[in-house]
Design brief:
The protein has 209 residues and is α+β, with helices and mostly antiparallel strands. 62% of the residues lie in helices and 12% in strands. Helix 2 (70-85) runs antiparallel to helix 3, helix 3 (90-102) runs antiparallel to helix 4 (106-119) and helix 8 runs antiparallel to helix 9 (194-207). The longest helix has 17 residues, at 4-20. Residues 1-13, 16-31, 33-38, 47-51 and 57-74 have low confidence and may be disordered.
Length: 209
């Protein structure tokens, strides 16, 4: 789904379904939605644990393949308006990029995060998100550049240290650097992450330190 009007169409149906099942923890109904392009798409609206989802009819409920979450869809529609009205603000572009990530639209997410860095070149979150996308795309040099830029702009931003450590350990084979960034990440937490502590211990064993 890559058209704003389609997103708004779905959002209206989601809202109607949520109103109908207000307070429900589990429910389901077969529906037919006419998209902005004029095509008709059938699927099942499912409420699980109080959250609404749309499952395309061809996947079936048993497949557990969620098409899109209600909250992300509504935020998407609202954020499109905000970024159009106030494009100079970095925050809405970051939020929009994160929604695109949730919708599995990485190129749209990348454009949103890059626009955020234009609006505010010092925004650490946007660079961290671009680092993640770059790593997933196999561009490890760009990933490193974005993580380092994030740390330069906000030295206390823990996720960038963690992501840089992962990049160095798993993708670039720079184990000493990975250990250093994992350790720094741990110091930034109120309580050390037990999972990361395991990584630290493993690297210390492998490096003999």
């Amino acid at each position: 789904m890559d058209h704003p009007q389609v997103a708004q169409q779905y959002a209206l149906v989601f809202e109607a379904v949520r109103e109908r099942w207000h307070g429900s923890r589990h429910a389901a109904a077969h529906v037919s939605v006419v998209t902005a392009a004029g095509s008709e798409e059938e699927g099942v609206f499912v409420v699980r644990e109080g959250r609404a989802y749309f499952v395309p009819v061809e996947t079936g409920i048993a497949g557990e393949k969620v098409f899109i979450e209600f909250d992300s869809l509504v935020n998407f529609s609202l954020l499109l308006d905000i970024t159009a009205e106030q494009p100079e603000l970095a925050g809405p572009w970051i939020n929009l990029g994160q929604v695109y990530v949730a919708l599995d639209q990485p190129e749209e997410a990348r454009r949103a995060f890059e626009t955020a860095t234009v609006a505010n070149p010092w925004n650490c979150t946007a660079h961290n998100e671009l680092g993640l996308l770059s790593r997933q795309n196999g561009d490890f040099e760009a990933a490193e550049r974005h993580y380092l830029r994030c740390i330069e702009n906000a030295p206390g931003h823990g996720p960038a240290y963690l992501n840089l450590g992962i990049l160095y350990e798993l993708y670039l084979g720079r184990l000493s650097d990975a250990l250093s960034y994992y350790r720094t990440y741990q110091t930034l937490l109120g309580e050390p992450d037990r999972r990361v502590q395991g990584w630290v211990m493993d690297l210390e064993r492998r490096l003999g330190v």
